[in-house]
Design goal:
Chain lengths: 107, 117
Amino acid sequence: DIQMTQSPSSVSASVGDRVTITCRASQGISSTLAWYQQKPGKAPNLLIYTASSLYSGVPSRFSGSGSGTDFTLTISSLQPEDFATYYCQQANSFPRTFGQGTKLEIK
Amino acid sequence: EVQLVETGGGLIQPGGSLRLSCAASGFTVSSNYMTWVRQAPGKGLEWVSIIYSGGSTYYSDSVKGRFTISRDNSKNTLYLQMDSLRAEDTAVYYCASAPNAYFFDYWGQGTLVTVSS
C-alpha cells in the first residue's frame, strides 16, 4: 500500500497568512493526488485534483503543486472559513489512501 | 443538483450485519464510479470500497471478504453490505461519487455505524 504522510499534523495561523501543507507519498504517484477540506461534523469537500487542478467553486486562494512523491497545498491568504482539517489522497493504485490530516487552527 | 443521502447506520453487536444505502438524486449511480469512505470517531479518512460503472469492485484489505459494495440501478441507490462486523468498523460511513475512480467529488452527509456489545 502507498503511505501518505502529511506535515505538519497541525498548524496555527492568522487570518491573512500564507499557509503551506505538504504531503509525501511512499512511492511515486505521478500527479494522481487530491486535497480535501473537512470541517467538524461535515463531509469532506474536494479542493484540488490531479495535484494542481482547482475544483469547481473552490476559491483561487487555494492551489496545489507537485508530482511524483512530494506535493503541497497552499492557501495564499487565510480566511476565517479556512480553519479546518485538510487531507491528501492518492489515486495511483488500490487501496486508495489518505494522509493522516493537517489541522489548521486559528492563532 | 447532485445529492447523496446515506441511511442504514446504527448500533450493532460484534459479528452482526448491516446494510448501508446511499440514495442519489441529480445523477445516475450506474453511470458513475461510486465509493465508500469511513471515518472512525476522532480519526482520519479511510477508503473502504469502490464500484466502477462497468461493475468491477475493489476493497480495502481491512474489509475484504466481509463487506460487499453493490448498486440497484432501478432505485439509483448504492449499497454497502457489512457482515462479520468488528468494533474497529465503528465509524461514520460516507458515500461519494468518484470520477474515473481517482478523486471523490460529491459526498453524502454520512451515517454512523457503532459496533458494540
